[in-house]
Amino acid sequence: MIEGMGADLRRLLRAGPGGVELAAVDPRSRPGLTAEQGKQWARERRSELGRELARQQEMLFASAKTAAPGSAAARRRVLLVLQGMDCSGKGGTVRRVVGAMNPIGLRVTAFGPPTEQERERHFLWRVARALPSAGQVGVFDRSHYEDVLIARVRQLVPESVWRGRYDEINQWESELVAGGVTIVKVMLHLSYREQTERLAARLANPAKHWKLDPSDLDERTRWGDYQEAYAELLARCSTDAAPWYVVPADRKWYRDWAVTELLLATCRDLGLRYPPATVDVAEFQRRLAATAQWGTGPGKG
Amino acid sequence: MIEGMGADLRRLLRAGPGGVELAAVDPRSRPGLTAEQGKQWARERRSELGRELARQQEMLFASAKTAAPGSAAARRRVLLVLQGMDCSGKGGTVRRVVGAMNPIGLRVTAFGPPTEQERERHFLWRVARALPSAGQVGVFDRSHYEDVLIARVRQLVPESVWRGRYDEINQWESELVAGGVTIVKVMLHLSYREQTERLAARLANPAKHWKLDPSDLDERTRWGDYQEAYAELLARCSTDAAPWYVVPADRKWYRDWAVTELLLATCRDLGLRYPPATVDVAEFQRRLAATAQWGTGPGKG
After folding, report:
1. Spatial separation of the C-alpha atoms in residues A199 and B295, rounded to whole Å
2. A248 to chain B nearest CA, in Å?
3. Between chains, do A223 and B99 touch, taking CB under 8 Å as contact?
4. Nearest to B291 among A206, A217, A300 (CB)
5. Distance (Å, whole) CA B110 – CA B88
6. CATH code, domain with B232
7. Nearest to A274 among B62, B210, B291 (CB)
């Protein structure tokens, strides 16, 4: 079994109950790593940790599948919430960190601007529908937190409405946790300068032109407002039940390594095991041996 | 761009309109490969092809996202249907072949025995609900074909019912195809002997004991009946609109390589491209340059 440093990293990156002074967190910093632990080290490490993450995911899946109906293990699931400004690497994190797991046990949902149908419902309706099933790892690429981010910055709803959402979110998340969902929330903390460079790189690559959206530039002009909105949700919604982590995201290799460690540490806390057989192994063995010789039917190798 | 040999392989593995004599297909054979192209070659090749598959998937996603509403491209999606006896490697194929793609563009569903709710509905109800969205690649690990496999072998419904399902399936699949779904159906063709060995390997590995199911052994005793049931569905449901391929599956590396080639060839037939920008690139560039210097707000790197 590969040991991660996830527990320490959680302490280093956790947004405390009082929140985080975002301006004091350098998006190019690399908390938890020594000077020698650079890009190559982190990539190799993430690759190892990814295999362990896949193992944890399999144990989660197996446990839920074999657990007694109604038991805690039968309801257990994990939810990773990713938030961050445009170009902060939510998509890349899904591809490289989440991509290390088995697709069969994943439920990944990207949330764009709400559809008309979604706008008619409570803001938690669409995310509730996208929750992972028991035994699955769910991933939200953007989430209900947009409803206290763009909704606040762009005044899509009155202030009294978005102000009330922090408590609504905390209440909902604590119900999920009580229902067996383990929640990890990650803010990918990008610098304005790095966003500029990534947008310029998109412009330079025709294969990425489809990603260009004029709203990217509009939201950029509200950078300070967004940082404020992030600071408040980190202060209000980083609960013990569902903590927020701030991951410096200017370096992609750091971001991928750190999110892998956070997710892995979270899974490890569940104390997962491969469940024992639900059948009598000796009897299964005997029956298998008894049928091993069948050898004349159609389609035999 | 990496050239695959998918087109040739499709010809080699395709179940013709008249079906396939399964007994004549050696599950250890490796159609399409020379004697020199063995395990190592196939693994390296699959890894290269996997990157190309991910690129195709991204173009599919991008095309659907940027296409004019109601256009053909806006509805386009791909569905991979995997069938095969227990231990034939449906799960391994999902992990290694499908796992090469980006989880955000995937919808993978494993179908077990129908729930009570599902049994009350038409047999196509649950699969219809699991179809990929536009721009996604969907994967069925088992499928509606169980309704002419176990349902037939175990007489879960009267013969007149399952006999009618071949036409129902063809009709439904042709409607899907007309609606923009490209369907690839793969039967993983395993030998009885290899299944014996894989079940024995499961028994020997406590981390795999949770997978043991007494029904695995029960179904084994009906091996010949299942081969017959497969032969009939291959004969009845391998249409030009939604062809079946029979992939020899005793060698895992062959199976993974072959399914990757089949899926990739299918994607390539769609003639996907990265769509052009939906914005004025020069104008975007100008606005980006104009905002590049903003540099004193909070949270800046």
Report:
1. 16
2. 10
3. no
4. A217
5. 14
6. 3.40.50.300
7. B210
Strand partners, A201: none
* Number of domains forming the structure of chain A: 1
At A45 the three-state DSSP class reads helix
**Inter-chain contacts counted by CB atoms under 8 A, chains A and B:** 202
Gap between the Cα atoms of B223 and A132, Å rounded: 35
In a domain, B248, yes or no: yes
pLDDT at A295: 53
Residues of chain A neighbouring B279 (CB-CB closer than 8 A): 212-214
Query: What CA–CA distance (Å, rounded) separates B198 from A172?
Result: 45
Separation CA A203–CA B150 (nearest Å): 53
Output the DSSP codes for A198-256. HHHHHHH-GGGGGG--HHHHHHHTTHHHHHHHHHHHHHHH--SSS-EEEEE-SSHHHHH
10 Å Cβ neighbour count for B218? Answer: 11
SS3 content of chain A, % helix, strand, coil (to 5): 55, 10, 35
Nearest-Cα residue of chain A relative to residue B29: A301
- Extract the tokens encoding B86: 């227990």
Nearest to A108 by CA among A137, A134, A86, A135: A137
Nearest to A110 among B99, B104, B294 (CB): B104
Which range marks the domain in which residue B193 is found?
6-271
Residues from chain A contacting residue B254 (CB–CB below 8 Å) = none
| A140 within a domain of the structure (yes/no) | yes
- Scanning chain B, the segments in alpha helix (DSSP H) are 6-13, 39-66, 72-75, 90-96, 116-119, 125-129, 150-153, 159-178, 192-204, 214-220, 223-237, 252-269, 281-291
* Chain position carrying tokens 């991660």: A4
Q: Find chain B residues with C-beta within 8 A of A26's C-beta.
A: 301
Closest alpha carbon to B259 in B173, B184, B174: B184
In B, minimum Cα distance to A250 occurs at B301
Distance CA A73, CA A290 (A): 35
Residue B280 lies in a domain: no
Does residue B130 carry a pLDDT above 90? yes
Give the Cα separation of B30 and B282 in Å (integer): 52
Q: Is B71 in a helix, a strand, or coil?
A: coil
Tens of each residue's pLDDT in chain A, 301 residues: 566 677 799 999 999 878 889 999 999 999 999 999 999 999 999 999 999 999 999 999 999 999 998 898 899 999 999 999 999 999 999 999 999 999 999 999 999 999 999 999 999 999 999 999 999 999 999 999 999 999 999 999 999 999 999 999 999 999 999 999 999 999 999 999 999 999 999 999 999 999 998 888 989 999 999 999 999 999 999 999 999 999 999 999 999 999 999 999 999 999 999 999 989 999 999 999 988 876 544 444 3
Comparing alpha-carbon positions, the chain B residue that sits nearest to A110 is B104
What are A50's two structure tokens? 């990814």
